[in-house]
Amino acid sequence: MTHSLPQEIIDEIDAELRHAEQAPDAFFEAWKRGVMIAGAQWFGDGTREGLQRAADKWDLRPNMPMFQKSLGVLSGGERIFLAAMASFYNAHDGDALLRRYGFEGLSDLGNGLDLGRRQVIADLILHYHGW
After folding, report:
1. Predicted confidence (pLDDT) per residue in 16-57, tens digit
2. Alpha-carbon separation of residue 103 from 2, 109, 123 (angstroms)
3. Which pTM was predicted?
4. pLDDT at 1 exceeding the cut of 60
5. Is 43 helix (H, G, I), strand (E, B) or coil?
6. Residue 75 in 3-state DSSP?
7. How far separated are the first and last CA of the chain, in Å rounded?
8. Which residue, 52, 47, 46, is CA-closest to 64?
9. Which stretch of DSSP H or E encloses residue 24?
10. Quick one: which of 60, 84, 89, 87 has its CA closest to 74?
11. Which of 27, 32, 80, 117 has the fewest CB atoms nearer than 10 Å to its CB?
């Protein structure tokens, strides 16, 4: 006796597989947009040239020691944005930064970030596939 899956299940599986295939490139594009908004000095080798040369997310890793030392000089929205980005790279340290700077929940992203920053975070969430 053979059983076949309902077509809607097959379609859902196909959509998930297509998404998973495209996620790494889409995540990297969103990450680069975030780096451009935040400033290249926080990521990779800390230069605009490094941003332009970056071939993948590893080339634009957050400079976590710099994040931990220097975020206090930024505005609240800038701190939350950088800490949220850091949490994609390292959940433990990024989440500690978010708490340190007053992040209490996802609504803080909606209230504390402008549209461009919210779009980057939304795209990173949608396309995250692990670091």
Report:
1. 888 888 999 999 999 999 999 999 999 999 999 999 999 999
2. 52, 8, 19
3. 0.86
4. no
5. strand
6. coil
7. 43
8. 46
9. helix 7-38
10. 84
11. 32
Place of tokens 């390292």: 90
Q: Which residues of 107-118 are buried (b: 16+ CB within 10 A; e: fewer)?
A: ebbeebbeeebe
Q: What is the CA angle 115-112-87, rounded to 5?
A: 90
Q: Please state the rounded mean pLDDT for residues 105-118.
A: 87
Closest CA to 28 of 126, 125, 124: 124
The answer to whether the CB of 47 falls within 8 A of the CB of 40 is yes
Mean pLDDT for 5-25 is 87
Residue 106 has pLDDT above 90, yes or no: no
Residues 22 and 121: their CA atoms lie apart, in Å, by 17
Q: Which amino acid is present at 49?
A: E
